[in-house]
Amino acid sequence: MLKDELGDIATNMDRRDNAGTAPAAFEEANANPDLIRREGFASEAEYRAYIATLGGHAPVGGTFEEPLLASDDHALEGRLRELREELENLHARLQVIQHQAATVVAENVRWADASAHAQLGNQPWLKLAGAMAATFVVTRGIRRLPLGTVATTALPLVAAVMKRKSVR
C-alpha cells in the first residue's frame, strides 16, 4: 500500500491521474490559478506587490536568513571522501573481474584438455607431438625429391589424357 499526499492510506485513489500520482497538494488544486506563482521574484518590490494581491502582509526583513557558508576544507574533505569511496568501489569491481578472468582461463584449459582426451584418447599430447614429428619428416622427404623433373615428365602425359577426354 502507498501513503498518499493527505496522509490517508489508499483513500484518495479517485484524485490520482493515470500514472498513479496524487496532486502536489489538495489546497493548491482548489486555489485560484491567478494567485499561484511558481517562479521566484525579481525584486523585493515585486514580492511585496504579490503579497498585497494575496491580501496579507509578510515582513521581508526577518524572513530571509543568511545561508550557512561551508568552509572550503569541509567541501574538499567531503569530495575526497566521495573519491575514496568510488576508488574502493572500483577496486572491488576490479577484483571481481580478475577472479572471473582467472575462472574463464582455467575453464578453457580444462576444456582443451578434455577435448584432446576425447579426440586422441590417453596421452593426447604425446600422440599430437608424434603426428607433428611425422609431418616434419614427410615434408623434409618431399623437399628432397626432384619434383621439377617429375613435373616436366608428367606434364605431357597429363596433357595427352586431357586431350583424349575432350575428343570423346
Précis, in short:
This protein is an all-alpha fold. The protein contains five helices and no strands.
SSE series: HHHHH
The number of E-state strands comes to 0
Structural class comes to mainly alpha
Report, as a whole number of angstroms, the end-to-end distance: 93 Å
Helix count equals: 5
Task: Identify low-pLDDT runs.
Answer: 1-26
Name the average pLDDT: 76
> Helix share of residues?
55-70%
Radius of gyration: 44 Å
| Sheet of most strands | none
Beta fraction: under 5%
Overall 3D shape: elongated
Keywords: Coiled coil
SSE topology sketch:
Layout: H1 26-30, H2 44-54, H3 72-120, H4 124-144, H5 147-167
Helix pairs in contact: 3-4
What report would you give on this structure?
- Residues 73-100 form a coiled coil.
- Keywords: Coiled coil.
- The structure is a single chain.
- Among the domains are: 67-121; 126-168.
- Helices cover 64% and strands 0% of the residues.
- It contains 5 helices and no strands.
- The termini are far apart.
- Mean pLDDT is 76; it is low at 1-26.
What key attributes describe this structure?
mainly alpha, coiled coil, disordered N terminus, 5 helices
